[in-house]
Design a protein that fits this description.
Strand order of the largest sheet: 4-10-9-8-7-5-6
Organism: Zunongwangia profunda
Shape: globular
CATH architecture of the largest domain: 3-Layer(aba) Sandwich
InterPro entries: PyrdxlP-dep_Trfase (IPR015424), PyrdxlP-dep_Trfase_major (IPR015421), SelA-like (IPR018319)
CATH topology of the largest domain: Aspartate Aminotransferase, domain 2
Cofactor: pyridoxal 5'-phosphate
Helix content: 40-55%
Pfam families: SelA (PF03841)
Number of domains: 3
Structural class: alpha/beta
Family: Belongs to the SelA family.
Strand content: 15-25%
Amino acid sequence: MKRRDILKSIPIMTLAAGIPGSIYKYDAFGKIKYAKKSIDYFEELGVDKVINASATMTWLSGSLMLPEVLEAINSTAHDFADMYQLQDKAGIKIAEMLNCEAAMVTSGAACALVLGTAAAITGFDSEKRKLIPNLPGKRPEVIMQTNHRYVFDQAITTTGAKIIEVDNEEEMHKAFNKNTVMALFFNAAESWYGIKNNISHEKFVAICKDHNVPSFIDAAADVPPVENLFKYQKMGFDMVTFSGGKMIRGPQSAGLLFGKASLIEAAKLNYSPHEAPIGRPMKVNKEEIFGMYAALKSYLEKDHDKEWQQWMDRTAKISAILDQMEGVETKVVIPQGPANVFPTLDVIWDTDKFKISGSQLYDKLKAGTPSIVTSKTIKNNMEFINVGVVLLQPVQVSLVANQIKKALKSSI
């Protein structure tokens, strides 16, 4: 008998349980249990562990999942689920928490942009779902403010839609025609570009309602404050998306799409587990859905004022260490919003005394042991670093401050 035939004859449970270092263990009833592992996969793969003193950047793996999220993932990983039922049931509970008509879990906010646009294009038309993004005739159109164009609006054109730019309310009114399927508002435009919206949230929604076309707001990174989860749907936006893997601290690969029931149901039809719609390659697994549900539940229940004070205490602790150095100044920065509204700390130094630029200090910290990633900042022709504190673990706060202090001292 060949080796592969012998392996085929061995029960999977026995085979898995017998693999050295396997995480799979079984009780007397054959149910999978998960043994505690001591393997350091960072070390095994040669991947550096990074201290995130920056922000919830995707390239830095977003944020760290809450213990409740890890528990939700681990406790649901060993059983199967009907994914149609899970998405529906989780959506009902999430919609109740967010006080909206309907909700669903997506594989991130970018996926939600694709699905929301697809929903606006196809509705409940099964033929359109099969043909998208190659629908016959003229391309569907999505209206955006010119100063809201951003790297992620490629998710819109992925559906085959064409983006129509407008600069004011009059142009927006004139832009609607029989091919218009949706209008998209990028909530963080003011934060990203430092310019005011030409069309306010309220006016944007009102114009869309005048033309009976759905409005969609991308608010991916826009909690805290927690109130933002409710703010935009109250304004009248038909669809809203938030990232799950940022400050909500769910799975990095999960997000939320919620709003008008008919649009969310149409979005589901364009998504996995349905076979071969446009959203099939972006599927979210059951553990991520459970994890996202647990993350949102925990986020809404937490004491946000207490958490804010903890962040402020971290900035004070770092400042207390760095401000002792002559020629070094720290300043707490709290953005006005609407995106990434949490405290960070500018660290500025006298470049005549410390012979190191902001970019050089950033690189030195990143290449150090441990690797610390901050943010590079330029203001008033001064280059320095900004330290994010919200993603630091408590034991890392003093460590980050002392590593910055050490790096600056070495440049004298």
